[in-house]
Design brief:
mainly alpha; five-stranded parallel beta sheet; two-stranded antiparallel sheet; elongated
Length: about 900
Amino acid sequence: MTEARPDAVASASLWERDAELAAVTEAVDALRDDSAPSAAGSLLMFTGEAGIGKTALLTETRRIAESRGCAVWSARGGETVTSVPFNVVRQLLQPALVSLMPEEAREYLGDWYDIAGPALGITEPGERQADPQSVCEGLVVAVSRLAKRYWPLVLLIDDAHWADQETLRWLAAFAERLADLRVLVVVALRPGDAADESARQLDTIAAAALRPADTLRAFTPDATAGLTRATLGAHADDPFCREVWAVTGGNPYETVELLAKVQDSQLPPVEDSAAELRPLNRSARGNGLVARLESLGLEATRFAWAAAILGTGITVDLAARLATMRHEEALRCAELLTTARILTPSAPANSPPEEGELEFVHPLIASAVYRSIPDGLRTAMHGIAAQVVTDCGLGAAAASRHLLEVHPEDDEELVEQMREAAREHVAVGAPEAARRCLERALLEPPLPEVRPYVLYELGCATLLTAPATTIDYLQTALALPGLDRDARVDAVHRLSQALLHNNQLEEAIRTVEAEVARLDPGPSRLRLQAVHHMWESVHVAGEHSPDRSRELAELAATCTGRDNSERALLILRGFDAMTHGENAEEVVEVCDRALVNGRLAPGLGWTDTEWGIELLLMLGSSYVYTDRLDRAESLFKEALDVYDSAGWGGGHLALAHAYVGLAHRRRGRLRSAETSLRASLRLAERVGRGLPLYWSATCGLVDTLLARGHVEEAWSIAERYGFAPPYPATIVLPDTRSVRGRLLLAVGRIEEGITELEAAEKASGGHGHNPVLAPWAGALARALAATDPARAAELAALTRRQAELFGTDTAIGEALRVAASLETGTRAVSLSARAVRYLESSPCAYEHAAALVEYGIAARSAAELDRGLTLAHACGADGLAARARDALDENAPARSR
């Protein structure tokens, strides 16, 4: 049993906590162990019902850690402030933030300063909407870097079940990184008190704990008796001690409070006094606590109510304004409530109330005081609190928490306040908080002419996090009259983006098409025409492809690239021509016209939201498959650098990694391609399976592993990540059916592979296609060579025709490789030699290596095989290198003779 001095009431709740304290001590000692082989951090979690002693355990954890030279930062969630974004993480980092000058903070956080700084309240947000995933990543980096400065560091988070979602999202991400950091995180919470997303985040945090969460138990009768005698004196008799346990149920908080009441009332701790314990216990909680508060006087009660309404950031000045009392009277009330163990000064300890913030001694007290306020008065006080917070210059976002509690009453000003608060929340990366504000504004309700704008803003706020929700709001906004032309055009574009990312591409196309028909000729109509063609271009069905391509070609022919709508149309025309295998030189010429001095135009950058990432990926892809890999690599590397520096860590970064991987794959840097594509797949999984970006990462990785000769690993990836029909409605690069067909052939499932490649042929609709982008014809020709040579020859001829129309060295060289694979003798040698000559001029090193090996085998040339082996090694094509070595070994006896 944990020992305690008779006057050590503060540590009374630590009785029977030996196992928990041993775990804490062990974790702190491990944190400080310089001889440890690694710098792994750890997480401990303690759970239990209200009053069970979680807060006391964290307090003792602080004492243990500080006694061993650790820096300790702490924070607490609150029942009434769960809607305040980043509330708990801001509390947690206050010691570090206060000690750093602005220039020091910028130096420590580097590029992440402008991303995480607004969420932490240390700098103003930028003009662009912050990506929540990026802000979360920025906070992880911020704490990681600060931890190195303040090592050894212990983070304490109490009442995590009441933490805001933004903090929990950060903590879940941070917990996954603890293996690389020397930080001890200790979390306390009530089980079952969190719901939905918060509960899921807490499950993730619990999974990262050093050991299963410890559930704190109530005191045993013996512990209660020991604590009673330690507090009241050894003369407390057994019947009295048993009644203390019976009255409190062994709840540590209630036990400590009851014993404090016994001391205050000078009740003798003997059997004759035991009957007085139940009335005393009722005064320590619920209505009894309220009665005790009221006994302190009306002014003290008003002050406590004001503190409960504020919930966080409680100062004497703010509470005085809310309670409408003079500062001197408020100060007296604060001291009175502190003496009564209802309020206490927050850190730094022992600071006078007028010099710092106040907090409730225990969350149970805060909840009881808040609930004791009459309903009508509580609502009115929240309205006054919003005004007080606003008058103090704390901003609309700070006031919005209180306005969320006010009853709707057709208040135009409240609607505008909530819209402004939503803008502030979006700017710091808290779209869920913005959504709450705007949904509350809808309840007011807004004026008819304002309502569509509130719905439009709701759609914008949720675009990055909830496509389905975005769709509902934007469709409703567009169905109402009132949006001006620019807002309406932007709403249609955003709606189409949300539909695309929700795998509703056909509806996205219809939505834009309908709006185009409503508009007169001009910039707005041209913009939506470009958007319409953009979604048509990535639609795999392509039922009306020839007509659409002609329409797009005619529209692009009038474009000079004088504005971004024209540049978008030029990019779309280039992409369309590339996918259908039109002349590559003309494709490049059209794409180049969309640039300004060889670079992306202002407003068309990777983080510009007007057009989105899809357009630029089309531009880069057009360069990839027309053998202009230098331009493609420059574009995709720029995307990666921009998203890294801007902190865009979600789907955008996943796509950037996928397309960097595509460029590496085409260049023949297969190891680098695999690394990039695996990074993309990890990020894509966080965003959600089944989305187009997820398919891009998976398909690209399978294709790269096949090129490397890692067939079993490719099959494993395909099985693990569901790389099989049904495929998404959007175009995926490389072509999904071609890659899946080749995979099936590689694992020996020949009939299934042929069926998949024939499905790719059918999907092309008989239209022209780029034989490098979608190499189904060549793969199918090889698969049918033995069983249906006539059909194989037709496919090989088709590949040759398409390659010559397209005109790149890669396309022609690959077509010659296919043709050579169907021949024998001198014909095979001749075609293989021609394939090598074309692919020597191609930037695609893997294909060149494959041609060299095939030529070396056909010509029985050790020199060509050696060249192919060397290049295959450089590419990381292990399977091709093994094939070259086997051929060299077979030819070795002939060479020796």
